[in-house]
Design a protein that fits this description.
2 copies of one chain form a homodimer. Chain A is an alpha/beta fold and 381 residues long. Chain A has 15 helices and 8 strands. Strand 1 of chain A pairs antiparallel with strand 1 of chain B.
Chain lengths: 381, 381
């Protein structure tokens, strides 16, 4: 096990009607003037928008708002949010939505109190200061509700990049599994896939002697494998959604990823897919992650043998990957990048856009170069 | 799953030489005048005391100290600590040791800033205010390094009672697995047993639909089952100790216990054993917990069936309990309360001292009355 540090100070309010505590929590964490930041019209249709704004008004919390966050949130809306926060002297950002609304909120929170261009953080600068961020989560997927990360796409370059900083970790996150019941099955399945791949990115590691985090990862994977088909069969299955929602947080606050080298090649490859094609992040991962497995497991089978036996309870790695693919198919996920409109001829552009060369530097478990990545994209055709 | 809230803000510095960061961490969390609080002479023999005091001096941290914390820490030393902290205007308490030194430090931290008798907290008053506490952990066992709990024994009454409060959760905990290498095998095994029972107290629950926390609990149990024999065979096995140490924290910061009714009868019964007899807490649990299982599994087998299959990979509950007992024996744990000097004739006094009546109110998974508890103590003879 490698040396590490770990801190996950987010306060989680979990369960039915948890969103009614939003004003109380904002006050607890020092907010008085709030930016309410959310996505598409779904929270208005579901009535959540009305409940949250009523709770804010009842709690005496003054707020301004910007909606319209899209999947794969973009820099232009972040700039708009920063300008509004500065003008209105906002001191707290409340995200209502999934990973996109939360990531966009984190970017606004950091950018508002930063003198330069917020995109600096997405070019690699560590975020040192931000307004506090709170969340009301509506999709179990990104894990952004408990993480210190944010991913934003720069519209001009189509670059989808991540930024990090302890100060953008939400001070509180409200997790009411019932809020995810209105999600379409495709988005629900994509969410579970994203959670599973967050675990895989940590699990597939060359760091030896990490039994405790291996076992935690395996337990989360088994949870997703058993619970996701339940919510696909019955979107109103609160209990299955509750288990998935807590798994989604634990999968990405890094409790299960400490002390080990991690991979993250699948996320890197998927980011290009959803930047250039019409792929929801989790659905893109459902195609890329098994393809990545087929390629790297031949070069470094070690950890895959344990994964096959413990998670899928089969004897061979190929059987396990086949079971994983069958599982993804059974919950309605795509199996080819062509389903997003990508063609074989797009592959060199996708691989190049990651910024790869002939030197094998991409990913942790097996270091990949540009031709390896092209090969993985081809396996995902 | 029940509604819950969860927050675990402790900053963990984990790995080799982590204790060298102590001065930096104390400053980060606002400490300038420190009470160094520790146990017996073992940290002086091992050289840890010298390393920590040198690090404090090098870091310009002023400190006073009280050693002598015993297993099952007592109120009289807490009163002494409170008086010293007030006199010396201490603003930070640093525990160096295991659960006893940490629990005693938490009591001192709360008592120093409280107008009344600190024992009020151990009579049930929630702790609202305390000096910040940091820890350097030397035993993987109690989980106190990441928990909001403290257990102290009142010498006059032999009452061993717990107190809780968010403010006594350590602001930082330094976990260097190498520091546990000097522990005798018996204490190492007792530590692992304590961790396993922290998981069992949460796992055995009547709350349905808690698959995610069940799976996390099972993963931790499997980790302890595989790693503990390694450190018994080789006390210097850093890697196995590292896995156990992180499992000990995760087992007790309540990440795996959220959203469910918990039990805690075994801990309650063991507290009496170590208050009246010469039992180390974990060793006492090694006797009480299997006896509790034999009694309650007959009345409510439900969760035991899953535990047998998933953790011990056997078909029946009796086989699983037998495997658990054999495991505890294999790591050197006792199997009868007589090994601590308790006799059958002591049982009524032990059961009575818990404060039980004919009404079945004790524990969560099966509600026990005084005669049930006597029967469990008899099963532990």
């Amino acid at each position: 096990m490698q040396n590490f540090n770990f801190c996950s100070p987010t306060y989680f309010e979990f369960g039915k009607d948890a969103e009614l505590k939003v004003a109380e929590l904002i006050k607890k964490f020092g907010g008085s003037k709030v930016l309410l930041h959310y996505g598409t019209s779904s929270i208005k249709k579901s009535g959540l928008y009305d409940r949250v704004t009523a709770a804010l008004k009842d709690g005496g919390i003054d707020f301004v708002e910007i909606g319209g966050v899209q999947p794969n949130p973009i820099d232009t809306l972040v700039y708009e949010g920063i300008e509004l926060c500065r003008r209105e002297k906002v001191d707290f950002v409340l995200a209502v939505g999934g990973g996109s609304a939360i990531d966009s909120s984190k970017a606004i929170a950091a950018g508002t109190v930063y003198d330069g261009d917020f995109w600096d953080f997405y070019e690699g600068k560590w975020i040192e200061k931000a307004l506090p961020v709170g969340t009301i989560l509506t999709i179990a997927a990104a894990g952004s509700e408990g993480s210190l990360n944010s991913v934003i796409t720069q519209t001009s370059s189509k670059c989808k990049r991540g930024a990090s900083g302890e100060c953008i970790r939400p001070v509180f996150s409200i997790l009411n599994p019932a809020l995810t019941q209105t999600l379409p099955p495709y988005h629900t399945a994509a969410g579970s896939t994203d959670i599973m791949v967050h675990i895989h990115e940590r699990y597939f590691s060359n760091t030896e002697e990490v039994e405790v985090t291996d076992r935690l990862c395996e337990g989360l994977l088994k949870t997703l494998i058993s619970q996701t088909p339940r919510v696909i069969a019955d979107p109103n299955d609160y209990e299955a959604r509750a288990n998935i929602m807590w798994a989604g947080m634990v999968a990405h606050n890094n409790l299960c990823g400490v002390g080990r080298e991690q991979d993250w090649a699948s996320h890197g490859m998927e980011h290009e897919l959803s930047a250039f094609f019409d792929a929801i992040h989790g659905a893109g991962l459902a195609v890329i992650n098994p393809a990545w497995m087929k390629f790297v497991s031949k070069k470094n089978p070690h950890k895959f043998v344990q994964w096959a036996q413990r998670v899928w309870e089969v004897a061979t790695v190929d059987e396990a990957i086949a079971k994983y693919e069958a599982f993804l198919k059974s919950i309605g996920m795509p199996s080819s990048i062509t389903e997003f409109g990508a063609k074989e001829s797009d592959i060199p552009m996708l691989a190049k856009h990651i910024g790869l060369t002939d030197e094998a530097t991409f990913g942790g478990y097996v270091k990949l170069n540009v031709s390896d990545v092209e090969e993985i994209y081809r396996l995902a055709l």
